[in-house]
Amino acid sequence: MIHEETLRLANLVEDILRLAKADAAKANLHKIEGSITSLISQTLNSFRPRFDRRKITVETNFADGLDRLYFDPPKLLQVINNLLQNAWQYTLPGGKVRIFSQPLPGGIKVVFANTGGEIAEADLPFIFERFYRAEKSRSREHGGAGIGLTIVKELIEAHNGQVGAEIVQDETRVWFSLPL
Prior knowledge:
Blueprint: H1 2-23, E1 32-35, H2 36-53, E2 57-61, E3 68-71, H3 73-90, E4 96-104, E5 107-115, H4 139-142, H5 148-158, E6 162-168, E7 171-179
Parallel strand pairs: 2-4
Antiparallel strand pairs: 1-3, 4-5, 5-7, 6-7
């Protein structure tokens, strides 16, 4: 029991350090031209075994001509990892995850949508706040400090982008937008 609590506290410290780095990201961005589709696809490949074990279907659909952006690869990789981790954690076995992009005037919107484990409409305005947990009853089950989406927000805003979340039909959609 002490060992488990020590591991939980060590993970909390690591999460807080990641958040501090995300806070400082605005001053430390090293943007290069890269393929956001490629970065998402590579990261998704590392998550595939987890999705497969839970029989979660994953579909992707990326808009043509919106692939090349200027971004800081390690920081955007952290965003994608956090969003895939959330999608994996909160999609029920046998569910579905969709990752797709849409054009915006002067930018791109990337959406991570999952079925099951919907967030209550009342919680949506708060999910990007530090230490906020929409799934309070399952907090221990999923671990973490409730700062994964806060890190996403900080890193995307450092790239002059925006984040948001919505419920559409039977899907929870968490998205970010970036300028082209």
